[in-house]
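Journal club prep — side note

Before the paper discussion, L.F. wants everyone to see what a predicted structure for a comparable chain looks like in token form. Sequence:
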Amino acid sequence: MQILISGQQINLGDNFRVYAEGALDAAVSKYFDEAVSADIKVTKEGTDIKTEVTVHPKTGAIIRSSAISADAYASLDGAVSRISRQLRKYKNRIVDHKAPVIEMVDMSVIETSVETEEAGDAPIIIAEMQTQLPVCTVSEAVMKMDLEGLSALMFKNTAHGGLNMVYRRADGNIGWVDPKQK
């Protein structure tokens, strides 16, 4: 497994890098034999140190976790512990439900040609981006949203082929938007 370790506003020593590679490799290899890559990003935020860990298993999922502590090693241990729990949960869901690997479909941003004079009080578009939408069931979409730490996820539903969206509500529950098919 290829592990990329980077630090922002902090100097990471060789001992930390060796410790980080060993800890993450042990956590990932416990659940997946062949992980493609992993990233560890360590940043200094005031007096605390934040560690963000991203793992890319061979199944195509993206699993993220982070932790904040006053010590770099404690921050890393917290993030690796969280990623280990998420990997265990993901592995159990794959084994229990025999979920297929999530297929992706290319989608493009719809471009609008609204003139500035016609727009009036219309909101300004801050950013546009192209992305791939997963083709999966609702439960797979919720799992992907949880693993990637997203607040919302749009996907193509395998049940009917239409676009759906799942999102985390303010009360912590999951919401699901399923537009009526014509």
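L.F.'s comment for the group: The helical segments are 14-29, 72-97, 116-119, 138-148. Keep this in mind when we get to the figures.
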